[in-house]
Amino acid sequence: MGSPGQNNLATATRVGLSEPISTGGPNEFDAIRNQELEKFLVGAAPNESQEEAIKREEVLGRLDQIVKTWVKNITRAKGYNESIVHEANAKIFTFGSYRLGVHGPGADIDTLCVGPKHATRNEDFFGELYKMLSEMSEVQELHPVPDAHVPVMKFKFNGVSIDLLYANVSLWVIPEDLDVSQESILQNVDEQTVRSLNGCRVTDQILRLVPKIQTFRTSLRCMRLWAKRRGVYSNVTGFLGGINWALLVARICQLYPNALPSMVVSRFFRVYNLWRWPNPVMLCPIHEGSLGLPFWDPRRNFKDRLHLMPIITPAYPCMNSSYNVSTSTLRVMMEEFQRGNEICEEIEANKTSWDTLFEPFAFFEAYKNYLQIDIAAETNEELMNWKGWVESRIRLLTLKIERGTGGALQCHPYPGEFSDKSKPFHRSYFMGLRRKEGSDPQEGQQFDIRMTVEDFKRDVYAYSFWQPSMWIYVCHVKRKDIPNFVFPSGIRPPPSKKSPKKRKHEEMNAGVSLPESNATTQLSDALSTEEPVPKKPIFPDFVGSEVGASFPEKLVTEESSDTSTYELFEGTLPLDGMESVSEPFHEPTGIEPSKASTSDQSGTIADIHPLDVQPNRDLEELEPLELPVTGQVASKPVHQPALKPLIRFSFTSLPKATGNSA
User: Fold this and answer.
1) Alpha helix locations (H) across 230-359?
2) Cβ neighbours, 10 Å, residue 39
3) pLDDT tens-digit profile of 217-266?
4) Cβ contacts of 521 within 8 Å, gap of 6 or more
5) Bridge-partner residues for 582, per DSSP?
6) How far is CA 262 from CA 227, 298, 356, 403, in A?
7) Which listed residue, of 219, 469, 561, 627, carries a Cα 20 to 30 Å from 592's Cα?
8) Could you tell me if 91 and 64 are in contact, meaning their C-beta atoms sit under 8 angstroms apart?
9) CA angle, corner 571, sides to 568 and 574, nearest 5?
10) Based on the number of CB atoms within 10 Å of its own CB, is 494 exposed (0-12), middle (13-18) or buried (19 or more)?
């Protein structure tokens, strides 16, 4: 059974794709700042207690026994003789934050069950094992998600949260010493098994590729805490999840192999503030392998060229772990990287403390206009299923709004949910809205995203396990009308003093004006008898594009294998945010090792020099550089499924934008 690794490879001069930016070690002031950071971390993100650590090990041991019993039961039920039943085996591995050793108190454990080829995913794992777990008193909140991109079973075992994946490999017997890092484990398996196995394979590879594991762990704990407090820790809503942050931190550890954690944090913001996405972050060269599995390569796969923030996994098959990132969420993260870099410079100049860097982001003060998405169901079990599905769709609403407004309207989804205690089985989600920086609002023009929202709801109501008691309600709220239940203790805090940056943010929000309306909303009769509290409907008559834009096409997602919706124009390779250029594909290098002094304590990033790439050359990391990517996409209408009950909106005429502030 996998557990957090303790050993590390000997530190080499070069770990990763390139020479380090700096091999310089810490000075006296670096050591002092590192002590201050570790002291802050102890109070802000303490490690779990010894008792909790022991409890986790006991739960994992018990889970391992359960899957071994399960696989013997299904082997016997399938008619195999007793000798095969006796040898039948399954094994539990861990990955993610627990395997990396950066988990905190109450964190869930990412686990993988590896079973033999005759133990199927749908019938046996989500069937028989689910039934076994549902009958155990130790198991609570059992929630299967078989139709996810990576199918998972979520539950609590004696209070410990577990995310359990399944991989049925092409072996009749699973040995106790099975090594999932071997490429042969991927032979003759389906895509879901490859994705499930990659969690463990990537985690183990990260630990092999960082020069100092303890420095990496402390630095990653800092960055995870920072990302959660600043509201950019969520893969499902289009930000970055645990594995993404681990890969970003690991790359900085490679570039500064002798740095202390405080130095790694500072260099993290320095490097990624200068990074020119969509140039990928990679810990090692991409390995094409011998099994013919698809891997990330924008020179061959034009869908890969559409990724905005590629962070490539180091285990075969190498994939982009951050395909959920959108233009809006990338904008939010880049603003946060810039803020972090500025604060770290002040910390190094002894002008502020680490507390400033980790200040929580005041989401409900940052925007004047928000979308509120309310969902509800009839029972807690239905709500758990419903909210899991809706959360996986919210990022599509962000993408649809970006498309429908030509990127002029930017969205900031809040990576979390809120619950109104007065409404059972009810959850709320919020999304901040603002005009793209640099665009001037034109009087009389409006953004009408009603069709976009209707398209989003059609996607949501296409849920395979939809029930009439499951509903979704979308409305616009101004900052002053944000419900009190989103605030701690249900009390709205007084407005904070505006900094120059916040005043600039307010100016951007001023271009997104939502005037009052007498419009009302009407819910379908299929909804529950308890009607939601009436609010302003979703008629974001923002100053901007044409009224009545509709989106008949389905958004192409990472899960889709249909590439016919993309029309690639040969020789036209525009970079995101830049005009297209009709040039052959060039792969410039990033940090030029020969121009970076290894004795430079500051680790200044060298000049960038483009380099022509030969057709058969191995794909290398492109550090702050330019990767041409096609942005010209031709969409085609697709058949829409039969509509489930929708929320009906009754709109008055859209008045001229008034520019009233909240």
Assistant:
1) 242-255, 261-274, 327-348, 354-357
2) 11
3) 999 999 999 999 999 999 989 999 999 999 999 999 999 999 999 999 99
4) 473, 475, 534, 535, 537, 647, 648, 649, 650
5) 572
6) 16, 35, 14, 40
7) 219
8) yes
9) 75
10) exposed
